[in-house]
């Protein structure tokens, strides 16, 4: 997979613009990469179409190769589609929060039920587990054993009771005992059948859960999309747990589940033990789907180049005297980033690295500058000279940010120094380290 993207990368290299044709070529490679990560074919097609649109609309930053920019767009889009941030489990004001587990047999529902309870326990949430899988002789025992292991009570009525009734009484018990969250484990089948769906629907109707989590085995591959569609259409899910990610699957199912249902993956299972549950992080999954190490390095490299191009753009701005306080702030943030700093320094011949002390000072200064600049009006930010000539403006800003007028004066003088310095550098005059102290 990584090699394929590397190929796409090479094909794009050395061309100055993202054009219709070289995107087509690269998209084909991305498509192949996603398919080998087990993303559903239709999902791949839709995703690729989206990225294509984005890539064509995107401006290529100067100093960045189109291929780098493109790789970054693919990665960003992948992260965005999968939800950007982790979305935690619901918690309602009036306990108990009711969670219903759904999924095919063997996907890891029962295990995930216990894992989830342990996870919630660590957040000081109390749980009750409810065993409704009356079809497999060992299923109830399995949950009871897991419950003992993590010290969480399990509600069960034996193997002769009606699953819907067990669920109903389980929730009632949770209310009586005042637990925070009740998690209902259900029976699965090896394949989707209407008995299972009917029973799930009835349990859902009866207990009105706040979360219905679809447990999906990440090794399901292509089928994950159809499975998700069926469960979402017939039962309605609010999220998913992707299990068995400790195996060597790439996790393409994550993208399929998200695209098909629009619902977030909330957790991932990474082992058989009860501790082996982690919150789902879209950026990590994106890296995994794109083949981990190698492509991720390309993405990081691209990000670095983009930061660098940003710095170059800024220099142009300074030359034309359009450089203002907002740019100044951006520039300081950029400098704070060690990676970018190293990169920026490389651009300037004869310039060494800043010491740790200087970086620490920069950090403190950045915070202060941010506060001061935030207290400026938009006009003042655009036109720094307004401040040089107006003590009342400087006083107002200082008060607003909780600093002294002197701090504002220093900021203005540093801003001016930086602008002059950058202008000198752009003209090819090298001021050396002494001049960098203020930055
Ligand atoms: P259920 O039929 O959906 O309730 O599935 P179970 O919870 O009984 O799990 C089926 C099998 O998958 C068991 O052997 C579990 O130990 C195993 N399992 C569940 N989750 C994971 C996981 O995240 N990683 C690994 N490696 N195995 C898992
Ligand atoms: Mg089970």
Automatic annotation (TrEMBL):
Q: What class of enzyme is it?
A: hydrolase
Q: Which residue ranges does the record assign to the SRP54-type proteins GTP-binding domain?
A: 264-277
Q: Which GO terms describe its biological process?
A: SRP-dependent cotranslational protein targeting to membrane
Name the InterPro entries on file: AAA+_ATPase, P-loop_NTPase, Signal_recog_part_SRP54_M_sf, Signal_recog_particl_SRP54_hlx, Signal_recog_particle_SRP54_M, SRP, SRP54, SRP54_GTPase_dom
Question: Where does the record place it?
Answer: Cytoplasm
Its GO CC terms are: signal recognition particle
**Annotated residues for binding of GTP:** 103-110, 185-189, 243-246
What keywords are assigned to this protein?
Answer: Cytoplasm, GTP-binding, Hydrolase, Nucleotide-binding, Ribonucleoprotein, RNA-binding, Signal recognition particle
E.C. number: 3.6.5.4
Name the PROSITE patterns for this protein.
Answer: SRP54
Pfam families hit by this protein? SRP54, SRP54_N, SRP_SPB
Per the record, which residues fall in region Disordered? 374-397
What Gene3D superfamilies does this protein's entry cite?
Answer: P-loop containing nucleotide triphosphate hydrolases, Signal recognition particle SRP54, nucleotide-binding domain, Signal recognition particle, SRP54 subunit, M-domain
**Catalytic activity reported:** GTP + H2O = GDP + phosphate + H(+)
- Molecular function terms in GO for this entry? 7S RNA binding; GTP binding; GTPase activity
Complex formation: Part of the signal recognition particle protein translocation system, which is composed of SRP and FtsY.
Family stated for the protein in its record? Belongs to the GTP-binding SRP family. SRP54 subfamily.
Job of this protein: Involved in targeting and insertion of nascent membrane proteins into the cytoplasmic membrane. Binds to the hydrophobic signal sequence of the ribosome-nascent chain (RNC) as it emerges from the ribosomes. The SRP-RNC complex is then targeted to the cytoplasmic membrane where it interacts with the SRP receptor FtsY.
| Comment, domains | Composed of three domains: the N-terminal N domain, which is responsible for interactions with the ribosome, the central G domain, which binds GTP, and the C-terminal M domain, which binds the RNA and the signal sequence of the RNC.
| Designated name of the protein | Signal recognition particle protein
The organism is Allocoleopsis franciscana PCC 7113
The upper taxonomy is: Bacteria, Bacillati, Cyanobacteriota, Cyanophyceae, Coleofasciculales
């Amino acid at each position: 997979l990584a090699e394929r993207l590397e190929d796409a990368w090479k094909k794009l290299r050395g061309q100055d613009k993202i054009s219709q044709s070289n995107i087509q070529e690269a998209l084909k490679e991305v498509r192949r990469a996603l398919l080998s990560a087990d993303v559903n074919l239709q999902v791949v097609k839709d995703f690729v179409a989206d990225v294509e649109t984005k890539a064509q609309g995107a401006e290529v930053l100067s100093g960045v190769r189109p291929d780098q920019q493109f790789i970054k767009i693919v990665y960003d889009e992948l992260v965005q589609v999968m939800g950007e941030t982790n979305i935690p489990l619901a918690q309602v004001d009036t306990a108990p929060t009711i969670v219903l587990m759904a999924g095919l047999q063997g996907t890891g529902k029962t295990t995930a039920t216990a894992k989830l309870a342990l996870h919630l326990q660590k957040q000081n949430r109390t749980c009750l587990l409810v065993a409704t899988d009356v079809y497999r002789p060992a299923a109830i025992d399995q949950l009871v054993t897991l419950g003992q292991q993590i010290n969480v009570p399990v509600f069960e009525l034996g193997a002769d009771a009606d699953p819907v009734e067990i669920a109903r009484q389980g929730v009632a018990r949770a209310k009586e005992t005042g637990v925070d969250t009740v998690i209902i484990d259900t029976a699965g089948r090896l394949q989707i059948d209407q008995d299972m769906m009917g029973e799930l629907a009835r349990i859902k109707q009866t207990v009105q859960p706040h979360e219905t989590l679809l447990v999906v085995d990440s090794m399901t591959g292509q089928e994950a999309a159809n499975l998700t569609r069926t469960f979402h259409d017939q039962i309605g899910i609010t999220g998913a747990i992707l299990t068995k990610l400790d195996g060597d699957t790439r996790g393409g199912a994550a993208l399929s589940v998200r695209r098909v249902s629009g619902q977030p993956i909330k957790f991932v299972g990474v082992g058989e033990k009860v501790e082996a549950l982690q919150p789902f992080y879209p950026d990590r999954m994106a890296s995994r789907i794109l083949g981990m190490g190698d492509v991720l390095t390309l993405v990081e490299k691209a990000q670095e180049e983009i930061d660098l191009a940003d710095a170059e753009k800024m220099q142009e701005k300074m030359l034309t005297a359009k450089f203002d306080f907002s740019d100044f702030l951006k520039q300081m943030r950029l400098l704070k980033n060690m990676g970018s700093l190293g990169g920026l320094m490389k651009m300037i011949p004869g310039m060494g690295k800043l010491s740790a002390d200087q970086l620490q000072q920069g950090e403190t200064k950045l915070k202060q500058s941010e506060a001061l600049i935030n207290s400026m009006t938009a006009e003042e930010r655009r036109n720094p000279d307004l401040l040089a000539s107006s003590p009342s403006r400087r006083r107002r800003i200082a008060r607003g940010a909780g600093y002294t007028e002197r701090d504002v004066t220093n900021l203005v003088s540093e801003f001016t120094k930086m602008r002059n310095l950058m202008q000198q550098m752009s003209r090819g005059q090298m001021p050396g380290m002494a001049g960098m102290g203020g930055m």
